[in-house]
Amino acid sequence: MVFVRNRFLTRVLVGLSVLVAMLGGSACQHTATEKPAMRVKAQFTADLQQFEKETAQLLQLAERTASTDSLQRAFVASRRAYKRLEPLAEYYFPATTRLVNGPPVPEVEVEETKLFQPEGLQVIEPLLYPDFDTTRRTELVQEIGKLRQETSRYKTLWEVAQPMDEQLFDALRLEIFRIIALGISGFDTPGCQTAMPEAAVALASVRTYASFYGDEQPTAATLQQDLRAAEAYLNQHPDFDTFDRATFITRYANPLSAKLLAYQQALSIAPLTDRRPLRANAPTLFAPNVFDADAYAATVDDRMNPAKVALGKQLFADPILSSNNQRACISCHQPDKAFTDGLVRNKTLTGQGVIGRNTPTLLNAALQAGQFYDTRSASLENQSFDVIHNANEMRGSLLDVVRKLEQQPAYIAQFKQAFPRMNGHIEPAHVQNALASYERTLLSFDSRFDQYMRGRRQALSDQEVQGLNLFMGKARCGTCHFMPLFNGTVPPTFTDTESEVLGVPETRAGRKLDPDLGRYAHTKLDPLQYSFKTPTLRNVARTAPYMHNGVYQTLEQVVDFYNRGGGQGLGFTLLNQTLSPDSLHLNQSEQAALVSFMKAL
User: For a tag on the chain, would you pick the N or C end, based on fewer CB atoms within 10 A?
Assistant: First the structure.
């Protein structure tokens, strides 16, 4: 993956706002009779001390001649100690946590065209697995030293913090969602393969924090029992490839997040009311209406209303947006084709040649922080500006569009209804926001997969369930196409959208790398060469052909490409490929199950 700093800043700001809200306390000794939040504070402090102890032991082993086995054991102990911290560390200190357990890839500052090198546990892991290369001992020692510096930063921040009840319950439920979407997929444990035992540790931390709120409520005892049962299931089935994720999510994780919410409400602790992509009162990660597309709107005024949506839908189908009045948005984003066009690449407006890339679906496009394959637009409003002004697509001008619209009284009336505070004239921003408002309604979360996750177990066949387990496990799909959106929008905050360097070939024959440089075309940083946004796989059976250039006609071809190890697996020299070049070793039956599952999306 390629992590984009301007998306990451959203999480930093969220963390800072939460930290400001909880400032004012100080570290001290606590007793069982004190408020739960203060007991949480003491527990995190104790867990942080254990993490410091484990990383100190890892550093000592790294500094002297030590066997691979002893280093790996110390590393796993450090990771387990971190997982005790994860529920609150990720919530309150996302910037620091990025440097403790963030992805081992450079962080890109788009606005300043700068790179920031990764640090932390995920950077240390490949130095130790599958074996420790003694020639890299100095590098290992340096990385562990950086990790310990960030651990000290945790301590400094936590000493002045006073956690609040509603935030704590929010953090605990988000940890359940993080385990579902990232933990059991092996997102942060690709080498050591300790995903399931680590998820059990994280759940034990959730259980400890929840226990501080007492057992007076009827839901308290069952919540503790269910948390222990989930931990036991994880520990009893530690093997990464064979772990039954479908069973774990539906029988353990989903009921846990719902019971945590019920317990919180029983304690009269109201869910947070801040506007964000994943609604704060969502009982499970797969509940209907779990996402709020308006959370991606830049301002309050940009949010939807029924009149905007109706106007945007009409504009979407109106060729008035193009210079020759012959092409509308719907020309390429056709509803009966899941808002794609079914073509490798569509024709230009003049019919002379084709557009540079395959037409992506607009279904769930609102639930991402970057638009287009190269993420050059941060919002749907900016996306429509780009398309209307693109010489190959609409060759238009929003100013010209506005002039044409203002010649139609019916449109004027609709705009006044949609934008009550407009100054009497239609503005380009109104057109952009109306289109975006309609597109924010194009959400699709009622597939057979969703029905299965909501308890209708017969919604998926045995083969499709096998495919789900492969997708989130051995096939590694879920480490880039994050559940439940199955795109690159990172859970559980869903504020950042990732891109990947896959090494997509120019033709089906796979003899040459596609020359499209992707994000590098507008952000000149070497890791972004051939980097493209991770698209959604929802409705994927209806959105062929696939990849940014439409090179593959079937899902079977796509799976074969990944199974070979992407571009490097095809023999391309692509040093910045983010996809593992190793074969997935999926047999024909497993590949068929994977395709079957994706069709259930």
Answer: N
- Does residue 192 sit in helix, strand or coil? coil
**Side-chain half-sphere exposure of 111, counting CA atoms within 13 A:** 6
Model confidence at 573: pLDDT above 70: yes
Helices (H), 237-326: 245-247, 254-266, 306-316
Residue of 434, 449, 442, 287 whose CA lies nearest to 364: 442
* 139: CB partners within 8 A, 6+ apart: 127
pLDDT of residue 31: 43
215 close to 221: Cβ distance less than 8 angstroms: yes
Residue with tokens 């846990």: 256
Q: How confident is the model at residue 25 (pLDDT cuts 50, 70, 90)?
A: very low
Mean pLDDT, rounded, of the chain: 93
Report the 10 Å Cβ neighbour count for 412.
16
- Give the per-residue pLDDT at 26: 35
C-alpha to C-alpha distance for 403 and 409, rounded to whole angstroms:
12
Beta strand pairing status for 107-109 and 114-116? antiparallel
Three-state DSSP at 291 gives strand
Q: What is the pLDDT of residue 12?
A: 40
- Model pLDDT, residue 106: 82
pLDDT at residue number 218? 82
Which stretches within 102-239 are classed as H helix?
A: 121-128, 137-159, 165-181, 195-211, 218-236
In three-state secondary structure terms, 470 is helix
CA atoms within 13 A on the CB side of 288: 4
Which letter, b or e, does each residue of 472-502 get, where b requires 16 or more Cβ atoms within 10 Å of its Cβ? bbbbbbbbbbbbbbbbbbbbbbbbbbbbbbb
CA atoms within 13 A on the CB side of 252: 24
Return the pLDDT at 66.
79
Name which of 501, 497, 535 is nearest 516 in CA terms: 501
| Mean pLDDT within 295-323 | 97
Q: How many CA atoms lie within 13 A of 123 on its CB side?
A: 23
pLDDT at 116: 86
Query: What are residue 334's DSSP bridge partners?
Result: 340
CA-CA-CA-CA dihedral for 482, 483, 485, 491, to nearest 10: -60
Only one residue has tokens 């867990």, namely 47
| Pair 354, 346: CB distance under 8 Å | yes
SS3 65: coil
pLDDT, one tens digit per residue, over 34-45 is: 689 889 999 999
pTM: 0.93
Going by the DSSP 8-state scheme, the letter that residue 507 receives in this structure is S
Of 8-17, 209-218, 242-251, the poorest mean pLDDT is in 8-17
372 φ/ψ sector (left φ>0, alpha ψ -120 to 50, else beta): left
Neighbours of 218 (CB within 10 A): 11
CA nearest to 305, candidates 418, 427, 439, 382: 418
- The residue-averaged pLDDT of 3-31 equals 42
State how beta strands 499-501 and 107-109 pair.
Answer: unpaired
Query: What is the H or E stretch that residue 109 is in?
Result: strand 107-109
